[in-house]
Specification:
The protein is about 35% helix and about 20% strand. The chain has 12 helices and 13 strands. Strands 3-4-2-5-1-6-7-8-13 form a 9-stranded mixed β-sheet, with helices on both faces. Helix 8 links the parallel strand 9 and strand 10 (about 250-255). It is globular and about 55 Å long. The termini are far apart. Its EC number is 2.7.1.130. Belongs to the LpxK family.
């Protein structure tokens, strides 16, 4: 879905006020569910989630955490619900065989770095991770899913966007009231600079939680100086467009699609025609690229980014403690 504009317009917006009773009911249900005890996985579980619907940088954060776990001598595997895919799992993701329509786009990205499992039944998915040789599970999303016990839960927040109007869905982007979510969080990762992220960082510190500042860094500058038509179907496409401009590309036009949008021939034909009219290259994100038909992907450039922590050692120490390895 594409976030409605009123989510960023304040809690007093008429649409937000009208939907507030529904949001209160939805938030209460999710809150009660979060409080349920989960099943032990038999190995440490590190969850990368967020307070809100939509993108905050969970997948790049999951990749960064998996790299830190590998530095600590662990063999991590990723566990995902596989949002947008039709396979219920549990199944190991094979990037050479599976498509985004089958397993979702994010698991395809994760599987390029370590074993990745898609499973709507999280305990069953964790069991498959262990059978594949994993001694640590990295959950991409799942902060609000109580079925699997977590040893460490890190909430990922987009610094510029924050929590929007601070109301539960559908009145706002929150999955549950923030006060009910904090007790389930072990630390906060703030991606990018912004006043909204600073407010959350101060609240986390007040609660005695560690705050990790991070940023998305592009890999290489191959797009510098190129004229581009940028398109994306992610949580915050405007962030991608800005990153592309910062990379030195001439952004001649932009097209935003809903998050996890399944690209169809008519979408790509229209984009190709617009690119020809503008005399521009088509450019998208890695997450969008895995949703493209193979015969179309070859002519589209991809901007790759990775998450860099300002203090990776501090997070490594917290991971070591969660793994039972001391201070």
């Amino acid at each position: 879905m594409r976030p409605p504009g009123f989510w960023a317009a304040g809690a007093d917006h008429p649409a937000a006020r009208c939907l507030a009773p529904l949001g209160a009911a939805y938030g209460a249900l999710v809150s009660r569910r979060m409080d349920r005890p989960g099943v032990a996985a038999g190995c440490p579980v590190v969850c990368l989630g967020n307070f809100t619907l939509g993108g905050a940088g969970k997948t790049p954060a999951a990749l960064a955490v998996a790299a830190l776990l590998a530095d600590l001598g662990r063999a991590p595997a990723f566990l995902s619900r596989g949002y947008g895919g039709r396979m219920a799992g549990p199944v190991q993701v094979d990037p050479e065989q599976h498509t985004a329509a089958e397993v979702g786009d994010e698991p395809l990205l994760l599987a390029r770095r370590a074993p990745a499992v898609v499973s709507r039944d999280r305990p069953a998915g964790a069991a498959l991770c262990r059978s594949l040789g994993a001694d640590a599970v990295v959950m991409d999303d799942g902060l609000q899913n109580p079925t699997l016990a977590k040893d460490l839960s890190l909430a990922v927040v987009d610094g510029p966007a924050g929590l929007g109007n601070g109301l539960p869905f559908p009145a706002g982007p929150l999955r549950a009231p923030l006060a009910r979510q904090w007790p389930h969080v072990s630390g906060l990762i703030v991606v990018g600079d912004g006043a909204a992220g600073d407010v959350l960082a101060r609240e986390a510190e007040r609660r005695g939680l560690p705050v990790y500042r991070a940023r998305l860094v592009r890999d290489g500058d191959a797009l510098a100086g190129r004229r581009c038509l940028a398109f994306a179907g992610i949580g915050r496409p405007e962030k991608f467009f800005a990153t592309l401009a910062e990379a030195g590309a001439e952004v001649a036009g932009t097209r935003a699609f809903p998050d996890h949008h399944p690209y169809r021939e008519r979408d790509l034909a229209a984009l190709a025609a617009e690119a020809r009219r503008l005399g521009a290259d088509l450019v998208t994100t890695e997450k969008d690229a895995v949703r493209l038909p193979p015969d179309r992907a070859a002519g589209i450039r991809v901007l790759r980014v990775r998450l860099v922590l300002d203090d990776a050692e501090a997070l490594r120490r917290q991971l070591r403690r969660a793994l039972g390895g001391g201070p």
